[in-house]
């Protein structure tokens, strides 16, 4: 009779030991996974925007006339990742066989969209009549713009134009990134 009393105790011991092990694992793994999720945005770089592919070099005219292109980037905001979001636009101008000039299409005066005027070979802001030369410099000394158009960094790699897109503070004579 003593043998039958020990058998259920052994079975209960194995069940209880398994429950303690599984419970222990759950109580450790779940909080650790939760901490990784909560602190995930802090592990990422704060500046996720680097070089963005804008266009192919072949899409630019050989004449050097600028063309306007949208800038589409991947935005990461905390836990959300959204691809191909329009973040602005730029003018690309072929300046050599493998070189380009990139100008932000926003007027440095108050942020209006600058247009290209092919007949005058320059840029024009319709909001306050700022005018800019083909290289982005202020064309009219009476222009209300405090500085020329903002030139951006770019590289040409494998026939593709990659731009480091960024905006700058409006109304300031200094080029201050925002």
Automatic annotation (TrEMBL):
GO molecular function: 2 iron, 2 sulfur cluster binding; metal ion binding
Pfam (any one): Rieske
Transmembrane segments: 17-39
InterPro entries in alphabetical order: Rieske_2Fe-2S (IPR017941), Rieske_2Fe-2S_sf (IPR036922), TAT_signal (IPR006311)
Domain of life: Bacteria
Keyword annotations of the record: 2Fe-2S, Iron, Iron-sulfur, Membrane, Metal-binding, Transmembrane, Transmembrane helix
Every Rieske domain range: 68-163
Protein known as: (2Fe-2S)-binding protein
Taxonomic source organism: Gemmatimonas phototrophica
């Amino acid at each position: 009779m003593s043998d039958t009393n020990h058998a259920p105790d052994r079975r209960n011991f194995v069940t209880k030991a398994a429950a303690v092990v599984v419970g222990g694992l759950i109580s450790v793994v779940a909080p650790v996974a939760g901490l990784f999720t909560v602190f995930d945005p802090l592990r990422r770089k704060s500046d996720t925007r680097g070089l963005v592919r804008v266009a192919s070099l072949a899409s630019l005219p050989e004449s050097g006339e600028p063309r306007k292109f949208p800038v589409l980037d991947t935005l990461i905001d905390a836990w959300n990742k959204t691809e191909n979001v329009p973040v602005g636009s730029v003018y690309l101008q072929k300046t050599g066989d493998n070189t380009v000039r990139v100008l932000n299409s926003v007027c440095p005066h108050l942020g209006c969209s600058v247009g290209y005027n092919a007949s005058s070979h320059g840029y024009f802001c319709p909001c306050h009549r700022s005018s800019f030369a083909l290289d982005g410099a202020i064309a009219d000394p009476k222009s209300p713009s405090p500085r020329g158009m903002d030139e951006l960094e770019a590289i040409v790699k494998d026939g593709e134009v990659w731009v480091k897109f960024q905006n700058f503070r409006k109304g300031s004579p200094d080029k201050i990134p925002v």
